[in-house]
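Quick entry, no commentary yet.
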Amino acid sequence: MALGSSAPEILLSIIEIVGNGFKAGDLGPGTIVGSAAFNLFCISAICVFAVGQATKRIEMYRVFMVTAFFGTFAYIWVFLVLIVITPNVVDVWEAILTLLFFIVLVVISYAVDAEIWKKKRATDLHEELELAQQDGGKEDDKPEKLSSEINKWASTFSLTHEDTNADVVDAVPHLDTVRRWTRTISQTYPSLSEEDQAKILAYRVNRRLSHDRLYYRIRAVRQLSSSWRKSEEEEVQKLEKLESTDGGNKKKTLVEFSARIYRVDSTDETVSLKIVRKGNMDSKFTVNYSTVNGLAKKDLNFLFKSETLQFSPGELHKTINIQLINAANWRPNDVFYVHLKIQDEDEDTKVRLGACNVARVKMPDESGMMLGGPVVEFVKPNYIVKENAGFARSFVTRRGGKLKESLRVHYETEDVTAKQGEDYTSVKDGIITFEGQEYEKYIDIDIIDDKMDEKDEAFIVELMKVGAGEATIGTRRKTTITIISDDNVLKNITNVHKLMGHYMRQLRPGKATWKEQILNAVSVNAGDLANATVSDCILHALAFPWKFAFAFLPPPTIFYGYPCFVVALVAIGFVTAVVGDVASIFGCMVGLKDAVTAITLVALGTSLPDTFASKIAAESDDTADNAVGNVTGSNSVNVFLGLGLPWVIASLYWASKGESFRVDAGDLGFSVTVFMICSVLFLVVLVLRRKLALFGQGELGGPFGPKTLSTLFFVGLWITYVALSIWNMYRVDHK
């Protein structure tokens, strides 16, 4: 990653030295040292300040120490070569050794990262995976644990793919894993479609997967050139704000009648119906009800009524009264209806009508009943419910005359083939209460959807006893509820799995085809016009020539990305040559030396993508590795390759002619010395931030005061380096 991000500086140095007839120039080496200074001081300062009160630490600290040592040693080596060993001359062996230090850096960094001195690495990995599975296994069925499930999967994925590039692997979870997540997310966000569920899962998985520096660099460049689609992330963030049914979020408000049927007799003058609310009690909404003819007609059996009711926060129920016609000719099974509708609700309120949103006001036919007191029983001996319905509703009726007082009926559930806690939520000593003219009420049992395509399962709901009074339990004291598997469950899971893969490929860079590259290049925000701002359009206009030209590069999906890599390097070399010429011309026009232009304007320009990439990584990652840890590695590569490679080319060229390759150590030597001193001070402060509680014991973030002081100190180091370097250049000229 360091090699790829340092390509402009390296190519600039090579192009300059070849273009100068294999003579050393100021632009290439100056840019390398200047870019290293900006990376180390300014980017680190931005990352320290970008993180909030919570601190973030470098996890791969051994690797960081190796790259930090080599980052400092690289500039010490340049100082020794140009001033101590062979002043103002670079011999072939010195150039080759400088280049070989890059290989030494890579080998040692890999050895420290892989911990090759540990012989039981495979066993350690196996133990880590088992621990991860044990830690997460107890929480799989809890809706609020979706994030921890995804974190566990992402950690396991990173462990099992640590020898490969996890971003290149098609990191779509297995179908069984998606099935489990879909079950959880369906309970958390029950109103979402398959597509929205897939979007949320893809976004969360992509966010939790470990990303390397290349990912953040690509994202930063695309944001700078108005090529990053904002809609995916913003849309998912909006979806995640929807009200859910778990305890940690707002519940939906459900409103319906307390009973399906209300009983009337020919002697009744009014009928009272109760409208109840369930779920979120904090909402405010308005409902409307109206009477509708059935066999019983308005003005013959009842008076028409339509009214609006407002539920205030905390209000559980409202009772409505409908006037009946005196001495009306009521016959058995005469019925009229009362319809309930939601009229008005708050913007942030999710109010839904329950299944009993139509009440039946009926004179029941009880001619077949034997003499005796009231009888309570189930309406039907069995009910069928789909597994994804959320709950099973069974109806209980009470027959035999009016109630003198409330009637409490006790019930409980019993397993048959369904298991409590796995297939449904059991109820022990549940109570259903008949009040007033309520004739047929309902019992709701929660159904647990495990998203498995399985056989039908059943359980029993049994009426155990009635409260004080003359009522008894009838012959249908039990009802069997059969849970049938949703015919589309496997199809739904498969669709979510496919859609999740599609959205993950959209969120991951490097998956576009040739056509998509060109279409994205000519559009603001890669086609996301709805979220485009004025600044996005301006950035797109400025970057359009480059975006359109480079859209014709081979996409990374062709031949494992090798054509893209080779052609992109050629394109970077071309752009670098243009930048070098423009920088020299600009410096000449305003009277700046090439060395001054190199350590300021060109260095800032080449480091701009790294700046935004590190800031995004600092804000998004849980660690400081991608934000700060790679800066020292990049600086080492800048010297060993950016100076070593052109030195090897030039020294071999002059050696073939029997001459020495001369490099003026004046400006570069002083600049390297100042940078070396500043970098040591920087590393001392960074170690102190990690060790001292004053800074929060982390490289990034921490308390506002110490964090601000660290930021100002790092920026001050960069200003000191630039000021002293420029002063020395013009001091030498003046002499």
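second:
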Amino acid sequence: MAQDSVDLSCDYQFWMQKLSVWDQASTLETQQDTCLHLAQFQEFLRKMYEALKEMDSNTVIERFPTIGQLLAKACWNPFILAYDESQKILIWCLCCLINKEPQNSGQSKLNYWIQGLLSHILSALRFDKEVALFTQGLGYAPIDYYPGLLKNMVLSLASELRENHLNGFNTQRRMAPERVASLSRVCVPLITLPDVDPLVEALLICHGHEPQEILQQEFFEAVNEAILLKKISLPVSAVVCLWLRHLPSLEKTMLHLFEKLISSERNCLRRIECFIKDSLLSQAACHPAIFRVVDEIFRCALLETDGAPEVIATIQVFTQCFVEALEKENKQLQFTLKTYFPYTSPSLATVLLQDPQGIPQGQWLQTLKHISELLRKAVEDQTHGSCRGPFESWFLFIHFGGWAEMAAEQLLMSAAEPPTAVLWLLAFYYGPCDGRQQRTQTMVQVKAVLGHLRAMCRSTTLSAKDLQTAAGQGTDTDPRAPAQQLIRHLLLNFLLWAPRGHMIARDAITLKEIRPQ
């Protein structure tokens, strides 16, 4: 071991002198000399890396004070970068100099300088005259050389990582965790280079068997930031791995979505859908663990805003996108519905998950009654002794807003007596915290409004005052009261369906006879 150390020190001095000569002259003789020594220099680099990886960055600088100069000269030599695996080994050596937790400005500057060298190594933007001379003899144009070199190296590393992932517990053929960690460190300043995408993807998908995460936190943060800023495009499978391995990235993506929704002046449902699909959240949520985190964040937002309609609308659009992605990914569910909605009845989730528009119109009322029966049992049955039952049932129900729309349409379009089950369903949708007596009172008020709306349908003339009369059937003056919200929902639907409904709505707004919530 001592002899190896002496030999390495001697070799170090020899190659330092060689690099200085190569660096100072660009003659044909120095180029020939460089090419003659490339294999030997690569072997020296390999030995240097084996020594450096056993030391921390401070020890490396103490033992080899000029190591930065040596590696920098090698990094700027196009012949060295072009030879075999020298480029890759140079990256390993540079990573050994990075201080994981810099304690002072000097160490921070050193890290920054090393990142600059790493960026240069894999950069496709420099085509020096030496490269032109070297590649011209091989029949390549300079502009074709560096991109090809970068692409080949990235594909080689990505292939090695995939093999590492497949080898599982075969430790003899697995890449050392330290190398994987170093790779993730190297990628941080290079993530936005398009040719590095396969390596980033391979790192995210490659799972080791170590008890702790081996990829650098900075790597996860940099990848997620690049995804949010649309500077990198990765397949959904890689994004899923990112969010499963680094929860803060998923949380930041959710916050980014909320920021976009809040900062946008007008958020129609189509615009919300574009934001959600663009974020990849609905596609990634096909994995139950991600869905549960996203759903929990939505739950907190709902509670913090006292059930704001904007939050409910976002949840409903997200659920539509999620169901669409789920159907696209697999015709049969890979996971049971219980894994997505653990706090509610699987039978209720199964019914709600159906597309209301996919059900024959003749079965609408029957399906709504079935949903109402399941919800009512979960809400009013006290035998389970669960205080979270009503809220969890309502939280599941509001995910699927199409059923509330269908219930309102059924009440307005049917000439028969309003079904109690459908009235209860809408009363629960708007007043989940109401007790039995309050909900019954809401149903009575809504029934009276429906009676006036049916009378208006039979009338040959409709006016804004008729609408005012119908709206006045509610006894609550608070516009946020469940009865008022439900009545307003029915009135808006009535205006959409009734002849001259749009004209009446315009008159009503002009006269301020119906005030928006």
